[in-house]
Amino acid sequence: MSNQDYIKGVIRSEAEAILQLADQVGPSFDAAVQLIEGSSGKVVITGVGKSGHIGKKIAATLASTGTPAFFVHSTEGVHGDLGMIEPNDIVILISNSGETAEVLSLLPSLKTIGARCISITKDSTSTLATASEVALTYAYNKEADHLGLAPTTSSTLTLVIGDALACALSKNKGFQKEDFHVYHPGGSLGKQLEKNE
To answer: Are 28 and 135 a contacting pair, CB within 8 Å?
Structure first.
């Protein structure tokens, strides 16, 4: 198989998983949006490894579309960064397995703080999902790499879920181009928005 054919297969594999994800959306997604909208606090995203990298992007997308958010690395969280989290905050915890030790170690302190938790995971029966107020779960056939091990399909689905939440929250609050420009005045996008004003 040529490199081009293999790469096309990887892309198709992830694309098919995203299309299947659309059919998996249910009441828990409504509940997550309502939980965030009903909070007077910020949204805090946490995770480690590839989930942490995806979490940073989700936090950035939320923030730029009108939902105050930031990322806390799970390991740093148990070493003092949990002090950034307040009782009215919503914490989105990301773990593909739902059993990542560093992520689970945050749960007792988050409960004490009084923050409410949303999880993003593939396993609805996992420790993380069952400990969360809302669990956003997804299913997929396999990771896209030749070994079926590297976080590829799973991390893509997590990213898509984060994008979908950010878009729904932004739409519901009536976020407009003018608002987006306030948060994104730089770069070519900022220039484009400035011309449209």
So the answer is: yes
**What per-residue confidence (pLDDT) applies to 154?**
97
Which amino acid, 110? Answer: L
Is residue 158 within 8 Å of residue 94, measured between CB atoms? yes
Q: Which amino acid is at 171?
A: K
Strands, DSSP E only, in 6-115? 43-47, 69-73, 90-94
List the domains of the chain with CATH numbers.
Answer: 3-196 (3.40.50.10490)
Tens-digit pLDDT profile for residues 65-113: 999 999 999 999 999 999 999 999 999 999 999 999 999 999 999 999 9
* Model pLDDT for residues 119-129, shown as the tens digit of each residue: 999 999 999 99
Sheet with 116-121: list strands edge to edge: 69-73, 43-47, 90-94, 116-121, 134-137
